[in-house]
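User: Predict the structure for this protein chain, please.
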Amino acid sequence: MTPSDAPQSRWSDLDRPPLNVPALRRGLLRPGGLWTALDVVESTGSTNTDLAARAASLTEGTVLVAEEQTAGRGRLERTWTAPARSGLFFSVYLAPGPVPAERWGWLPLLTGVAAATGLARSAGVDMALKWPNDLLVTVGGQERKTGGILAERAGDGVVIGIGLNVSLRADELPAPTAASLALAGAVSTDRETLLRGVLRSLEHWYGLWRGADGDAAASGLQEAYAAGCATLGRTVRAQLPGDRTLTGEAVAVDGDGRLVLSTGDGLREPVSAGDIVHLRGAGGGLT
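Assistant: Here is the predicted structure, written as structure tokens:
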């Protein structure tokens, strides 16, 4: 990892300036708050990998941000790369402690709600969620992926990573189904503003969830996720391990965070994020 505390030339990249670490710490680290430490590195392979390797010595609320990730990971070891300072690439360490471990599966969905609501306020862009871990925006009338979430058990807690395309131009996108906040017409692409917005929203939702002992319904999380989930109401095809395929209408997200599909024979079958290999619209596009 290359530290990023030292100021860079203000003329190094006018469109993509480096993050102001002291300002971020002043705005986010406070006594009694969730966030306890924040570091920014110039470049690293994966912020999730870095935090997971240090999990035994971390304090809850540790945040690690990278100006560039060279080996960012998504679900199923998919890669996530983007030009330096073109997005937000960061991970946080949470230790839910007394919350029953079987409810920790809600943490990536909680992070999705927090990111979507935080970005809707700070970027002025309508965000949607693709179950279980994608952030969507609309560009040219089409839903496209602008961000992803990866949660991993680490020691006594969980490391949650977020990758978000902020200022990528059309010719920089990794795939035709990708997008950025800039291409979606964001009113602000200032990464410090966006990072503060997401982390403050995450602190809010995590506090509600933890205060309800991880009960997604009692904390309002289940309702909020369903309200923002673009997958619900659509016919999807879930590819499961063992070459099993399940097609049905996504009708609900249950109390365990599983997607409930109503199949053609009238049965309702829940599928968990850990069982999904691919989830696609029945026509093959984004759900």
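Confidence is low (pLDDT under 50) at residues 6-12.
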